[in-house]
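Holo prediction — phenylalanine.
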Amino acid sequence: MKDRIDQLLTEIEAIKSISLEEVEQLRLKYLSKKGLIPALFDDFKNLPATEKREVGQLLNELKNNAQKKIDELKSHFELRDEVSAARLDLTRPAGNVEPGTRHPLSIIRNRIIDIFGRIGYTVADGPEIEDDWHNFSALNFTADHPARDMQDTFFIATNPEIVLRTHTSSVQIRVMESVPPPIRMIFPGRVFRNEAISARAHCMFHQVEGLYIDKNVSFADLKQTLMYFAKEMFGEQTKIRLRPSYFPFTEPSGEMDVSCNICGGAGCNICKYSGWVEILGCGMVDPAALDNCGIDSKTYTGFAFGMGIERITMLKYQIKDLRLFFENDVRFLKQFTGAF
Ligand code: PHE
């Protein structure tokens, strides 16, 4: 009897895919009341008690295997029936898969990281929710400093010591507090200001901050670095212009314009017919800011700069409305296919 069970087990095991009618015949042959397996169960009753345990187990295994096999064969047909009931044609070629596109702000941010990476700048990050120290005080904004009004700040209602960072200069402080000079880094990130949303302003935008601290760093180094950046970003023909400005954490401070890459300097509505567009603020790190972070301002000097990614992206791609960046309209986003 054991041999017979073994024989049926291998027989059933070997069955390959067959038609639906044949599956039914198989079921009748092996599992129906008059089938081979119930017949074995009849024989089983006459076995001596000593053999019953072992053979009983084998017999159950056979029955389960047969049932499993038949279910399996049947399920193929059921799947096929479902597919045809849903009128799915699995042989039809798939439609076009549209590749995703990078957001234009990401493209330009990556370009900026790449341009500075080539002259040794590494990238660091800091929190978007900042404390007053890192966003203002350590950067030399005194409590009643009018410069705090320069940036319309979002304060946390329950704790005015906590703000949404208004600029990436906060990361300068975090880095200077924790990294001994020389420091050559850029900090890309999102910043927040309480501004009415328009074609030219938003309450959330992106900056990249640059910081270089070492012995004997001069304003000439700053100017050369910014000129290199402007030419890499906007083309070899680009000119730069530095105008005096004011930031509490740099002295002297400047703002940099680039020659308008749209009209080539001749004058257009993007540069408001001046031939120049402002792209960043910069300056030599104020000794007070260095000292606030435990860097000896008698030994070290440095420069910092901060630029808006939206502004640069608008210039690069001639985008006239800042709001487009955050609306996620695919008709806008799709235009950047292929760029990285
Ligand atoms: N944090 C300044 C701003 O947001 C820009 C800046 C950065 C200026 C670094 C000087 C040095 O306007």
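READOUT: The mean pLDDT is 90.
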